[in-house]
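General statements about sequence and structure are easier to judge against a single worked case. In the encoding step, the backbone of a single protein was reduced to a row of integers, each denoting a local shape. The record that follows shows the chain in one-letter code together with its fold in token form.
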Amino acid sequence: MSNVIETGAVPVPHDLFAPALEGNLAENQQYLATILATAQVGILVVDSETHVIVEANPKAVEVIGVPREEIIGSVCHRFVCVAELGQCPVTDLGQCIHCGERDLITAKGEQVTVMKTVASITLGGRAYLVETFLDISDRKKAEQALKVSEERCRDILDNANDLIQSVDANGAFIYVNRAWKQTMGYTDEEVSRLTIFDVITPSSKKHCSLLFRRIMNGERVQAVETEFTTKDGAVVVLEGSINCNYVDGHPLGTRGIFRDITERKRMQAELTQSEDRYRKLFENAPVAIVVQCDGVYVCANNDACRMLGRDLVGVDVLSTVHPDYRDMIMERIRRVSETGEPSPLLEQKMLRLDGSSIDVEVTGSSIIFKGKSATQAVIRDITERKQAEEQRREWNLRLEKEVEAKTRHLKEAQAKLIQSEKMATLGEVISGASHELNNPLAGILGAIQMLRKSALAQPIEPELLEGIDVLESIESAAIRCQNIVADLIRFSTQARCSFSEIDINQVLRDTLEIMAVPFAERGIEVELDPDPAVPLIEGDFVKLLEVCVSLLRNAQNALPDGGTIYLGTRLVKNYGEPPQVAVSVRDTGCGIPSQNLSKIFDPFFTTKPAGRGPGLGLTVSYGIVKRHGGDIDVRSTVGKGTEVTVTVPLRQPKAETAPDPYA
């Protein structure tokens, strides 16, 4: 009879199970063989004394990897454990192995991690070890992979720049990463004693409490912005997302990932302030600022709209530019857009809504407006400045003319002063000389009268007639000298004028009556223009008539071939001076050379041929005008004519003493 009972795939030793199969032996053997064959754990039966494997189920054969025949009869140290002979943990060292991890040696010499249990049994009076083991190498690999994955996730979380936290349903922190602790300034121990509400700023607590309850109720919040208070009291602005962690459908806590946006918020606030400052500067700038894109205004400040009289947004740029400047403006815009360099200051004209033009100065620069390339122009209205410049130019011209006039008047005044001093000196000399000459002339004339009477009393003879002719020539020369002396006396002494109220216009009319015949003979036309508004003046009618006749005679002499003489009066009122009457005599004659103008009032100065006059007319006239407290002004241009203006006051001084004619 065989020692081994064959039961299906697993043969069972007959002597091993004999004591246990005393009843229904075949049925029990079959039952035990089925258990061993279907068990999903490896089972080895080892002789305790010899350490020889006496039985191995299919799972044990599969794990070890060699045929069952090779396993049966082999020492257990070859497969079951790595202990040396005599060092068996159970039989030699007395250890109790229960669900312990051990290494099993495969046929290839590889060690497989198994979970092993060893139990001692006695069968047929002999001690055996029943070793059961489960291959957990895959589980160990999975655990190792999980560990590696956990370490990798923890490394990612701890090295993330964002703040990551996990909070339980009560608000206590389950986990925070390194960035969270560095930002907030807490240690792991301090974090373990905190709740989420300990770090939320007071201003954010109400909002965060409501948010926490919404999340715990299952609501998903995509974006959150809140403020945390760090350990040192600083406020950190965070944004991120929070969601709920569920287990078996029940919320256990929240998970949140936040990013520190404190610096970004600060920069945004500064940017907002900067934009606000720029906007206010743009809107309230004292100059016009416009932005154009593709030839259309896309932005304009208040001053620009006010300056051009309308809202400019959407308006074509060229419609506001004067036609004379449109080509140049388009070229400047193109150059600024291509080079990016600002355009220099330029003066131009722009058009207002009402069609009127204004002078402006413009400078432009390239900018980005709403993501597109555009041109910004700063425009200053210089219309008033241009008008002021034009007025300044006019004032300068006027001032130059006034300076020239004042300079001329000053020179004339200096010349008149010199003339007055010269005339005063001449008056003194002539006064003495005239009296000295009158006596001899009177004696000569008396002697001539006596000689003529004596000659006429004698018989007429040719020689006597010749003598009488000589006497008459001498008498004529003496009378002429006497007349000259009389004029000199009149010039030097200027007999007192007989002042009364006279009509100066009538003086002119009487003068023209006197000169009518000579003027007609010369073909001279006269334009009389008396001002009817001229009042009566205090003057000597006869002497002023003499002055006017002398002036008209000089004008007649300047028109040998005829011409025109203008004669007029006007009332002169100068600031700070009493009113005066001006008499103007202007001719279209040959004019007076400039070198002679300073001599025309000198006694005996004349441009007439010898014997045509002593040259005392203007000298005497000068004295008469001075006696009236007036003045004579002469302006002449060679080839065009001469104008003489006599001015006398309306009233004479009340003092009895006549004014010095040369003052």
Observations:
- The first helix runs from residue 14 to 17.
- The chain has five domains: 4-137, 160-266, 287-381, 393-488, 497-649.
